[in-house]
Amino acid sequence: MQKFLFLFLLTPFLGSAQRYTVANAHSHNDYEQAVPFRWAYGEAFGSIEADVYLIHDTLFTAHDTPELARHRTLEEWYIKPLDSCVAAHGGYPYADTSRMLQMLIEPKTDGVPIIAALLKILAHYPRLTANPHLRWTITGNRPDPSTFATYPSFIWFDGEFDKTYTPDALARVALFSDDFRNYSLWLGRIALPAADRARLKAAVDRAHALGKPVRFWDAPDSPAAWKQLMELGADWINTDHIKALSAYLAATAGPAR
């Protein structure tokens, strides 16, 4: 039932005529924002990212080791606030009960012990695990795909285009992500070259053929680039500029696909 609901709620991302909204917005490296979690959540983003390190049984959010000095724990900065929001909305991530929220967790070291630590924390937050409108997706240092199905059903994984997945493993892939620079060095200042557009579109089409949404990271982060990504059919719009992307989507409603 949970898998069916997940796929049902993903339908707007996959070739529908609906327009882009903040439900398609992904807060990249959200912990580097002036107000982590709260800014992206306040704009009703559909996906929020936190990179994590495991230090002495505690998960800290940081992009690299010097940032660990900020002592931001995943539990205090993300899990507890999210749990409070879900409680306030009667078990849903947002007041709009049709909306989903993805928490994209990137282990910066070996993913297996980090996922184990995450599961240990989430065991204390049943509202966040027995919740078909919320998904925890592991990116970065993922375990081997052959183990995906051994994890609890609320744990999903970020797919990689250079891997071949068995049906069981693919069933646990929430989306496919890739580095924009693997397809184009475009900086958003001129027209996207036709050859680059074709490569990007082929990747989008490949993910969609598998029934999965797609995200490109390290893409230019500007209105011109957001427009190009939407025209290509990329389902998640990756940004470090939460307020600007939210305003852009509100003003334009995005092009219909």
Describe what is shown at a glance.
By secondary structure, this protein is α/β, with parallel strands linked by helices. The chain has one domain: Phosphatidylinositol (PI) phosphodiesterase (TIM Barrel).
Task: Please provide a written account of the structure.
- The chain is α/β, with parallel strands linked by helices.
- Helices cover 32% and strands 18% of the residues.
- It has one domain (2-177, 194-250): Alpha-Beta Barrel (TIM Barrel).
- It has helices spanning 2-10, 38-42, 74-88, 111-122, 167-170, 194-209, 223-232, 242-252, and strands spanning 25-27, 47-55, 58-61, 101-107, 134-138, 155-159, 173-179, 214-217, 237-239.
- Strands 1, 2, 3, 4, 5, 6, 7, 8 and 9 form a 9-stranded mixed β-sheet that branches.
- The protein is globular.
- The protein starts with a helix and ends in a 5-residue tail after the last helix.
- Keywords: Signal.
- Residues 1-249 form the GP-PDE domain.
- It comes from Dinghuibacter silviterrae.
